Give the backbone structure.
Amino acid sequence: MMSNSTILNKSEGIPLYIQIRRTLREEINGQMLVPGQKLPSEDELAARFGVSRMTVRQGIADLIDEGLLYRRHGVGTFVALPHLERDHTRLTSFLESARQEGLEVAVHVLAAEVLPAKRKVALELKLEEGELVIRVKTLRFISGVPVTVHDAYIPYRQFPQLLQDDLQNRHLWDIYESYGFRVKRAVQRLEAREADEECAALLEVEEGFPILYKERTVYLDNGTPVEFTYCYNRGDRYRLTVVLNR
């Protein structure tokens, strides 16, 4: 719980907004402010710190830029949940990335079925349109919060027994390896989108919420495409890193 009033040092030469930013950051790191908690209003914070709303707003804006806070228009400012950092210079799975960061992860299977491949899926997997594919659609959670809808398609002829595996606790790539196939590379396309009604309901956000949309084709070490995926990531919980060299 935050204190009702906080005295800022107005003589030490450190701008007041930086002192406010530092205080709020310490309260977030010390879990006096917890993920998902709504901050007091700017008026309340201004009264607490004995400063103007503009000074409070400047301190909060820096924490929003850092990803420690986020603002919902017309609702207020909230403490952000941990972000999943994906390094897109390496081919890693969701579970690998999350566990490396020490995050609590869970996967819920929404659909596991065999169906005819639609045109786009067939093209990406180099199949005939209508050829059978396995669809595995999952909802992925970090710390109990849904962050990603992962909708994957795999050639049925390569993995006819795949649906008998533990799709909730094993990553697809581990299953491929159990068949003797090794994932080597992937081609990804990323773009910003807004959550539609179905996606918003699954990710527990408002319709129109910012989504990082991804399409990815995964290839085996022999160059064969083995998986095509539509991926919808919550914009407030997903962050990617790309290293560029010249």
The chain has a mean pLDDT of 83. The two ends are 48 Å apart (CA to CA).
